[in-house]
Amino acid sequence: MRSVLPFLLFFFLILLGAGFEARATHIRAGEITARRISLTSPTYEIKLTAYFDIQNGPGASEAQTKVFFTIGNVRSSGIPDIIEAPRQLPFPNIGNNTTQNTYIINYTFPSTGKYRISFEEDNRNNGILNIGPPPTQNLNFYVSTILEINSTLGLNQTPVLLNAPIDLAAVGQRYIHNPNAFDADGDSLAYRLFIPQRSGVNGAGINLQYVDPNQIGTPGQTETGASPATFRMDKLTGDLIWDAPVTKGYYNVAFIVEEWRDGVLIGEIVRDMQIIVEDARNDRPLIQPIPDICVEAGTLINQRVTATDKNGDKLTLTSTGGVYQSTLISPALASFNVANQGAQGSVNGQFIWQTSCNHIRLEPYDVLFKVEDAAGPGVPNASLFRKLVDMTTLSIRVYGPKATGLRAVAATDPAGVAYRLTWDSYKCQIAGAKIVVYRKVGCTDIPEDVCITGLDPSSGYTEVGRVDVNQTSYLDNNNGTGLQSGVSYSYRLVVEFPRPGTNINEPGSLVGGGESVASDEFCLNLPLVMPVITNVTVDSTSATKGVITVKWIRPVAKSGLPAQYRLYRGVGQNGTPSTLVATINTNLTPGAADTLFVDRNLNTEGNAYNYRLDYYTTQNGQLTKFDDTETASSVRLEQGAAEPDEIRLNWSALVPWSNNNRIHRVYREDKRNPGTFNRIAEVSVKGNQTFTYLDDGTDKYAADGTINTTIVADSNYCYKVETVGSYNNSQIRPAVLYNFSQILCISSADTSKPCPPVLTLDPLNCDSLNAHPDAFCGEVSFTNHLSWRYPSEVNGKECDANVSSYKIYYARYEDETPGLIATVTTPPSPLATTYDHQGLTSFAGCYYVTAVNRFGAESAPSNTVCKDNCPMYVLPNVFTPNNDGKNDIFQPYECPSFVQSVEFKAFNRWGAQVYSTRDVNINWNGTTNNGKELAAGQYYYEATIHFESSRRESPAKVLKGWVQLLR
To answer: What's one Pfam family the UniProt record gives for this protein (predicted)?
Structure first.
């Protein structure tokens, strides 16, 4: 026996060590997805996809036959459900010493609301360099998904992540990962980096100590030699790019895939993934980028994909995406074929997809192409070869075909003037789709771009009706009020498609919403019977003698008929035109000077003005109002935010014509010849952008002579602008409309920024509050009181006293970038002010304040001040769990406020642990965790408490003490 026992002991220690390795080497990555599977109840299939490290053996992966999901309403303080989920078979080895395990349950949610589904499991794999505290094998792995349960969302499902999160990265080479997220409902997806977490209370997560991978080791360089190395995620494409690793080892990062519908966030998935960095003995392969494409439904896509490797390594080219999976889209499915798979140096693939009407959707389809290299014949040290990858994404947008054959004819209708529209039967008869009829006054061409569906609001078209997609006609009688006689109308059609599940009784009828390209225009090109304002231009700038000229075009009518124009004026660009400034009689004789009016004695220096023209015609021998025009304002020029040695100009006009997609003209007074303005710039205005120009003194328009100047303090500069616009209507002449603003003279006397204020934040007296642990019981809203002063000078330099407002910035955590929460106008004395930040869920947070002068220049931030909650948690030293309803439970006094998490352990007098919990309120009833009643006596406890703080990972407060258990 003496010879056998040592051997058995040695053998036992080996087994113990192997068991420890199996326990410690565990989860690399994972995420939770969900999809609704019932038409009648909120029942979802919930799936965890987890990736296990088997570097030191498959023990942990094989042993994880089940997991537990924690499911709770985010907006409720109730106890969440904990549901066991079995592992699905098989659980394959996907390479890089990693298995992919999946666990699935079906779960019916009790009610509508926002739910968190989370998973936690002890023991990440060891040696992760960028998270802590070490050793990382002692950290648990935690991921969560937020799911909105709402009947209006129909058969909604989360995105699925089709690309596994395990690839090798090489020191000094660019690394890219894309989750290849696909949402079968066609919802919009966005991506953002997130901090890996460990589990907290009631299914919530707590951030780990974390740094971005590019901050481990020396600053490093990108693959092309730029410094430092970078780590980022594209919020639109989901490309996670590390350019480039410096130190080999394990790294864990996390990101969130957000799911948006109609501008509303309806869910988010956290993926926690691992990047394995090696000293590779080869260069990564390269795959050629592919431009995004837009195609009409029914188009056959035939796309060549090429990948190369400069080392001549063997290449494997693969592709993933929702377009290949019948469970995610309607057939026909796409295919990807690689004829020379495994070739050395270069490989080509062919992506083929016959699109159909069932593939129309609002968001694009993303198809991921991935190339991986492998050691070819004759490669030295093949055992040291590390496989590297590159990838690219093809974005395909499938839009609906345009409606064809649109026509309109006059129709008899009791309402008056009406038109019957007809068109060809639509090509894509999708259940729930609608044909939308648009109309505008006048006829004009609009540019067509197959990647832009529908109609831009700036085109002037407005919706007048919609019919089911199987209809081929529509009666336009202006909703029963009749259309205007003699007015030219333009019509277009757009087909809109429903999202899947919007009719829950017809699931899967469409892949994901979207719309068609607008149809060709059909124009009822009738003579204009109403005048149209074409000009409101400032001729003279003065506080009392200002002049504006208003012009309009004559309507088409029979000469000799008495008619009348009545011109009304309003103050400001939005003011109601209520002042009658002119009544002009006309007999509509061609050439008569009745289409303009010069409005005098205005304050064009201080005000903009707008105008409306009422038109009267002869009916039954009487002048009767026929109609009125849209209002049109003068151009208003304003000074923008101050810039050092530069002057910012902004201008605007509210007019019925378009000043967009034109080139506006900027003029500056020549100081050598007062009153003479020289054109200094032509500003190209695209889309609906702000009309603005920054003058640095350079004359950028040489045709009328170059007159440069220097922008200096305490000097005046005078400007005016000329807008260039058009109705884009062939019936309205002139086709191009020119209108001047008023003259604006600007002093550059204060282009410097004001000084930063000095901020203070009312502190909490924690010593006083600890004597009153019930101080915040029942409180759900808290207020921080801020006060600051504005200095008269800084470093001996006088501060600008012309402060007009202060901006307050707030961040929940000290490592966040503060965001603007309020702008405070200064009191009569601008040297001090206060602000109460109300409606907070706790006092924790950080603030700074800036000062803004009258020119809009903003100071540097003040000092940043952070505030924390008081760590209030008081425990009794006796409880009597005898079920008499009095003091039966060991719990903190009153209500513990601002507690983020608690880890409580109780020990008997011999040091054996008898009870533990993570319940914030402890709620110990005097039994063990197995329900065994404990004897009366003295017990010792240790409580590790994290409070809500301005720091993401707040320092723990450890309470140690004793409690007398009496029965």
So the answer is: CHU_C
Using alpha carbons only, how large is the chain's radius of gyration in Å? 36
φ, ψ for residue 61 (rounded to 5)?
-65, -45
* Partners of 394 in beta bridges: 367
Torsion angle in degrees (nearest 10) through CA of 934, 935, 939, 941: 10
Are 394 and 293 in contact by the 8 Å Cβ rule? The answer is yes
Q: Where in 381-531 does DSSP place strands (E)?
A: 389-399, 407-411, 418-422, 434-441, 462-468, 473-476, 489-496, 522-524
Question: Taking the CB of residue 363, how many other CB atoms lie within 10 A of it?
Answer: 20
**434, 507: one domain:** yes
Q: Which two tokens stand for residue 287?
A: 């795959």
d(CA 129, CA 134): 9
Strand 473-476 to strand 418-422: parallel, antiparallel, or no bridges (unpaired)? antiparallel
Look at residue 251 and tell me if it is in a domain: yes
Cα dihedral 481, 486, 490, 491, rounded to 10, equals 40
Final residue before a domain boundary, out of 717, 747, 777: 747
pLDDT reported for residue 689: 61
What six digits make up the tokens of 290?
């592919």
**Is there a domain that residue 348 lies in?**
yes
Burial letters 80-113, b for 16+ CB under 10 A, else e: bbeeebebeeebeeeebbbbbbbbebebebeeeb
Return all residues near 767 (Cβ < 8 A) that are at least 6 apart. Answer: none
Between CA 55 and CA 738 the distance in angstroms is 74
Domain range spanning residue 494?
Answer: 407-524
**pLDDT at residue 510 above 50?**
no
pLDDT of residue 246: 93
pTM of the model: 0.58
Average pLDDT of the residues in 208-214: 94
Tell me how far apart the alpha carbons of residues 433 and 156 are, in angstroms, rounded to a whole number.
Answer: 19
CA atoms 509, 515, 519, 522: torsion sign:
positive
| Phi, psi angles (nearest 5°) of residue 12 | -65, -40
The mean pLDDT of the chain is: 87
Distances in Å between the alpha carbon of 918 and those of 80, 907, 943, 946?
Answer: 13, 16, 9, 11
pLDDT tens by residue, 647-668: 889 999 999 888 988 899 999 9
Structural domain ending residue among the three candidates 585, 616, 632: 632
Residue 14 lies in a domain: no
